[in-house]
Amino acid sequence: MALFLATTKPVAPVPLNDASPQFNIQPITDRETPVLAQFSKPSVVYLGSHTGCSCGFGYCMHGDPPPEPPEIDTPEDVAELERVRASVSSLRACLAECLSQEEAVELFACWEGDEESQPEERADVTPEHFDGDSFRLVQKGFYVVRRAG
After folding, report:
1. How much is the pTM?
2. Cα separation of 41 and 45, whole Å?
3. In angstroms, rounded to a whole number, what is the distance separating the alpha carbons of residues 99 and 106?
4. Each residue of 88-109: pLDDT tens digit?
5. Could you tell me which of 76, 142, 84 has the C-alpha nearest to residue 108?
6. What is the CB neighbour count within 10 angstroms for residue 133?
7. Is there a contact between 87 and 117 (Cβ–Cβ < 8 Å)?
């Protein structure tokens, strides 16, 4: 999974620490430049989670929306859920920070290699959308994220 953020103002990178991956913000690569066509805003970055990629921005394990809460069976499941929730919380904080400087930002989620694919779902949301008992990104989902209130 790849998650791209488009803003009017550039977003500062957050380096990926390969030894201990956490939320990170990377410039897009040459291979990812086709994703630029998805956005109306000029500054586009890749958002990564604790997995290094964007797959860690979701904590549901079953079905299509509405997703069911994940099943937690082992201590490893508990630890992974904590890492996922931290990644989603960091994503939410990043969006809130961007929205302190502009009215709206755009996100596009897709499998790597699908950067040119047309969005299959569109949603207007606030940063609080990225929270709750269960959460996942919609593949080929395009989100316009606006300030709450």
Report:
1. 0.89
2. 11
3. 11
4. 999 999 999 999 999 999 999 9
5. 142
6. 11
7. no
